[in-house]
Amino acid sequence: MNNQQPVVLDEPTAGSRRNLADTLRAENTGAILLLIGAVIALAWANSPWKDAYASLSDLRVGPAALHLDLTLAQWATDGLLAIFFLVVGLELKREIVDGQLRRPSTAIVPILAAVGGMAVPALVYTLTNLQPGGEAHGWAIPAATDIAFAVAVLTICGRGLPTALRVFLLTLAVVDDLLGIVVIALFYSDGLDMLMLGGALVAIGIFGVVVRRRGGAPWWLLVPLGVVAWGLMHASGVHATIAGVLLGFTVPALARTGEPVSLAERYEHVWRPVSAGLAVPVFALFAAGVALDPAAISAAASTPAAQGVFLGLVLGKPLGIVAATWLLVTLTKARLDESMRWGDVVAVACVGGIGFTVALLIAELSFPAGAASADAAKAAVLLGSLTAAALGGTLLAFRSRALRRRTTQDAQAEAQSDATSAA
């Protein structure tokens, strides 16, 4: 008789782990997991067990002596999200050194489109909050674009559209992230401790020297250096996620002799699954838990901060992106890619209104925890992002169908012309 116990869930093989990591690297997967985290948070925060959600979010862990006795929500925002920004920093470094941002002549249109797409939503928010009860602090909330969600919507709804459109959106979102990082560093840092900041910069500098060793330094050296840099940055008063960006910037983005790919690409390949599969979904789980019952929605709708965020994302973003692009093309020698049409730009501009990750982060930094304006702004980020996704996705699907129809008609006309010539 075989007494061996049945295996319910065996240790995954190396191939299975690689497949899982590759799945997590896909843009669609990251966006789906982010959405799942947000949906769980919303369902939990609006359920009979909402007190358990609040207790979990407020649970403090960590050593107080090192200024790290943080709530779980703060660990998600300040700690795990630093991994997301590390990946963003690596991506930005590659784009600046060897990508679309390397040649200003190629990148100038989406770069200025990104600037317009941040300035106009901030202006819309500010004007909306000039009324009594307005909250000026949240002006940067609708200025952010979520790369993962925006690219996922384009991938799903814009099949067959020109590749240049994806490049346009990626460049726009990358520049948007870079400007968002600058905004967080300049306007959302509190009580700078220059000694701690200097220590953080020294740790980042050492990391940058060590990581340039051929083949890369061992993980057991780089990870502790990164953690020290993060901890010192957190203690300095600068938002700790900035440490992730700066660490990413120090990694070489060009492949050296004998290396198949650059270190930046290798490290992005390693850390993207951690970011997409853990950091961002857990952040969404703690950041998106706002009340969305009819009374809360009604209260949010009457809050100037929420009105400014929603209008900034849904109207300000596309208006700013399209206006900046049109002015640049009209007033200078800059041109859109030959394969793109203005209808494509409008559709992508609407998708740019998907704020989510960075917008939720800035909403958390803009208002005191638990403040009515904070919850209202978060609710507006969620509703505004979903509205922008629905509007942009619909326009992209329409453009995709129109392109396929035009392609089919051209093919039929060419076939008919060939048949006539043969006759």
UniProtKB/TrEMBL annotation:
Transmembrane segments: 26-45, 65-87, 107-127, 139-157, 164-188, 194-211, 216-232, 238-255, 276-297, 309-330, 342-367, 379-398
Keyword Cell membrane attributed: yes
UniProt-annotated location(s): Cell inner membrane; Cell membrane
Reactions catalysed according to its record: Na(+)(in) + 2 H(+)(out) = Na(+)(out) + 2 H(+)(in)
InterPro entries linked to this entry: Na/H_antiporter_dom_sf (IPR023171), NhaA (IPR004670)
A matching Pfam family: Na_H_antiport_1
Keyword terms, alphabetized: Antiport, Cell membrane, Ion transport, Membrane, Sodium, Sodium transport, Transmembrane, Transmembrane helix, Transport
Primary residence: membrane
Topology class, membrane: Multi-pass membrane protein
Family per similarity comment: Belongs to the NhaA Na(+)/H(+) (TC 2.A.33) antiporter family.
Function: Na(+)/H(+) antiporter that extrudes sodium in exchange for external protons.
Name of the molecule in the record: Na(+)/H(+) antiporter NhaA
Organism: Flavimobilis rhizosphaerae
Underlying gene: nhaA
